[in-house]
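Section 5.1 Outputs to date
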Amino acid sequence: MKNEKRMSTALTLTFSGIMTALVLVLQLLGAFIKFGPFSISLVLVPIVLGAAVCGPGIGAWLGLVFAGAVFLSGDAGLFLAISVPGTLVTVIAKGVACGFAAGLVYRLLCRWNQYVAVLVAAVVCPVVNTGVFLIGCRLFFWDTITQLAGDSAYGSNVVGYLFLGFIGANFLFELGTNMILSPVILRLLNISKKFRLGE
């Protein structure tokens, strides 16, 4: 029993380490691919997988690593120039919250159906990530966003600018890739586990 627990802990640490490395690599590489004002990244996929396989705590950790990588990649530069505390709070909160929420949702639903659980977690992760970002925008950056909207084709429609011009395409991309890739990768991990166990 003790050996099984040690093996389980070692596998959890190994898998979470691999997911940590993937989060860093995907976020830093994603910084070079731009779509509108934001980078395109697959970084939420390893966060969902890590949260599903290892639990909400590891999901929160991966979200924190994601936040650190956002600062390293320079993605937060525009917001840091406006408010350093506001940017720190927003970026860290959205990363930690999306990872924790994905893990929590998966844990609640996996007893019923593992693939439905990972699919819902794959939806919840970008929704929470974007939702917390929007809250941060409203709290810390609203004046700047209003000014940017006024200088754009959206004019005084700040909400339209925020949803359609600022985050819309990025959110849809993250949501779509998460929904497609997370269940597929989890399926491959399960097949690999069965193969190793000789089932």
